Task: structure prediction
Amino acid sequence: MRTVNKAFLYGHLGNDPEVRKISNDRTLVRFSLATHRRIRVDDGFSEETDWHQVVAFDWLAQKAADRLRKGQPVAVVGTLRPQSWVDTQGIKRKRVDIIAENLCFGPLKMSQEDASVSSAGSPLPEEGDIPFEAV
Result:
């Protein structure tokens, strides 16, 4: 029987990516990603935030480290990988990481100079109109 382990998330970074060299030629980057969902409560709806840990390796890690900053939108395609360990107090810990296979970066924030040049010509596109850059 075939199985599938694939995750697709779209959210915003909760922190700047943490970059680590894991060997001379390998790089690892880790960042938290916030996704939101609406839930029904007695008098309407409420929004809850879920936090996910994303890990990327090698060239994808370098691209993420160069391009991503806290608060930026990003789409992640990857696989789920459970992790477990015993911490320094002897407590068994668990988490599920998303191992990134592909990232689509959201629009970069424009500098004040770029914004003034754009406003002299055609109007700036709305945030939703700026295409994502896939890696």
About this structure: The helical segments are 58-67, 112-120. The first helix runs from residue 58 to 67. The beta strands are 7-13, 18-23, 26-41, 44-57, 73-86, 92-105, 133-134.
